[in-house]
Fold this sequence. Notes:
Helices cover 90% and strands 0% of the residues. By secondary structure, the protein is mostly helical.
Amino acid sequence: MSDTSSSNATLLGIFIVWMGPTLGPYALIVFAALAGAGLALTVEKPGNWWDGIRFLALSTVIALLLTGPLAWLVERYTEVPANIALIPVAVAIGVARTKLVPFIHKLLSALAAGARLALEDADSTRGRE
């Protein structure tokens, strides 16, 4: 009898090949992000089933958004091609999800505060004229 994990890996490989060169990298990112989020989920311990699903979904969306640019940076500054860097980068994003969400929230809050100050400054300058 074959091992279930090897059967699942074989099915995953067949699925990614079936997706083709257009959607194959996205499938790799999704599965790698889910693997990384699964590792982070063992530490996070959500309260119920729905919180766990939300955790995995948010991790996957964050990985889909950030993996491409980060893999491009890896390709630009190292000798590793971006298509090879997709899996480790997506897994790292999935694992680091618990640290990334607060960081992204603080970054967006700082950007919003800066934009608010710039708009207030522009309004006050326009009022003096």
